[in-house]
Amino acid sequence: MAEGIEKNRKDPGPYACQYTPKDKKGDFYDDYCNWQRIPEYQEFLFNSPAAKIVGQLTQSRRIRLFHEHILVKEPGTSEKTPWHHDQPYYCVDGEQVGSIWLPLDPVPREHGLEFISGSHIWGKMFMPKKFLTHEEYDYKPKSFDPIPDIETNRDQYEILSWDLEPGDCIVFHFKTLHAGAGNLQRSNRRRAFSSRWLGDDTVFAERPGKTSPPFPELTFKQGDSMIHSLFPICWENH
């Protein structure tokens, strides 16, 4: 996997994004939808227990790959990932969904992710935010609820985080609110490989603007099944 991320970094895809300005210390970048051209990604996505784990947690009969996403924060990176949840960014609706966040480096909790316990069952969809500016997406106003001011009111939420080692992972729902700290460690990188998975009840969702990933190849309509070569079946419960 580490080799795959280095290949990806040297040969970025069309959706790669650099968040740290060149004149600032550190380096936060991400990229997604490259699994078709990076064998190390394919090996993990198709041959690891990842899809099975999501299938069992969501009680699905089969699991499709949605996409992969690398997020790397080099030592000394101050940029934070804002509070958000993923489903409003995506062109999918459903409850049998899951993300797996897999670190390739030791991640002390103060440099990792935080999650709000139970936020996936609040029955709300929050306006997505841009990672670069932390501004709201260019969706139609009031399409989704504004994200509450979590940082000012942290004592009102059950916020979870963990110290992680390579081989650990966090599995969470697309609607779970989460945020990411910077990586202010002096020498340790923070490389993470995220994989996103679709279970039985997942359908295509039209959003009020460009989604992330955009998947321009799709011609689906609201409520269509996600049957497409872009989203291969990676696990079935026989």
TrEMBL record:
InterPro entries: Phytyl_CoA_dOase-like. This is Phytanoyl-CoA dioxygenase. It comes from marine metagenome. Gene3D superfamilies: q2cbj1_9rhob like domain. Pfam families: PhyH (PF05721).
